[in-house]
Design brief:
two-stranded antiparallel sheet; single chain; alpha/beta; globular; Rossmann fold
């Protein structure tokens, strides 16, 4: 597809290819701990999706385009294991449906193939309002954002994207493009014309998260008929960070059972 973005990725380990796709405002490095647990058996690629991490910026970031970016990054000879969280989970689902022969196993973390309401507009506005020209440090940025983004964990997560260059501080995420594409990012493209994905799939959710619910299972199974579901107790949307041991155990059990 024209307009593909050459994605940045960090590779760890050796073996069968295993791609990990992060969520909105994140980067591949958010999943380094998970990758370290897999590197003895897999070549893990921690991918930065377009407009995130070290990957190039682009004005467009629909799911069809992001899926095409992943397809272009896939090795030509071997199918991949594909894990995606949140926005990355939507990219992973569409990639598996469009290229089923290239995806050996699919792991979708705390997201469903549905549209969601969002409250990101005010959050993005707060980040864009930060005066980077006069900013003297991350601590000052944290204090400035506290009123509009009172959740400490979310604020620290977002501030990982604030980087210092020779010319001063800048956001490595493409905030204007994300803001422009929010309605598309919180929706999901029509997939009824695709054949169901024939491979094994794990849909794993946090018990306290509203993003992947039992009411979504019927739709998931219509497109991923071999899907299995697992809930991580006492976890929200960032379940791999909140309950890393339980998350790793669920992932390892799925990989062992579907091998």
């Amino acid at each position: 597809m024209p307009g593909n973005v050459p994605l940045a990725s960090r590779r760890l380990g050796a073996g069968s290819p295993f791609f990990i796709l992060h969520g909105l405002f994140g980067s591949g490095l958010n999943w380094r701990t998970t990758a370290l647990g897999l590197e003895d058996r897999y070549q893990v690629s921690l991918v930065d999706l377009r407009n995130h991490g070290r990957s190039p910026h682009h004005a467009s970031m629909g799911y069809a385009q992001m899926s095409a970016d992943i397809h272009a990054l896939m090795p030509p000879a071997a199918p991949i294991h594909l894990l995606g969280h949140s926005m990355g989970g939507k990219v992973a689902m569409l990639t598996a449906l469009r290229n089923p022969e290239r995806v050996e196993r699919l792991i979708v973390v705390d997201i469903a193939p549905v549209s969601y309401q969002h409250d990101y507009t005010r959050l993005i506005a707060a980040l864009q309002a930060l005066d980077l020209g006069t900013l003297t440090g991350r601590t000052v940025a944290d204090k400035s954002l506290r009123k509009d983004i009172p959740d400490d964990g979310l604020r620290q997560f977002l501030l990982q994207n604030l980087v210092h260059k020779a010319t001063g501080y800048q956001w490595r995420i493409n905030l204007p493009a994300i803001a422009e594409n929010l309605s598309e990012l919180t929706s999901f493209p029509g997939i009824d014309d695709y054949s169901p994905y024939p491979g094994p799939a794990l849909f794993i959710n946090g018990e306290r998260s509203p993003y992947l619910l039992a009411e979504h299972h019927t739709k998931i199974l219509s497109h991923f008929p071999h899907a299995v579901f697992h809930t991580i107790a006492d976890a929200g949307h960032w379940l791999h960070v909140e309950q890393p041991t339980a998350f790793t155990t669920a992932l390892e059990n799925f990989l062992a059972a579907s091998s």
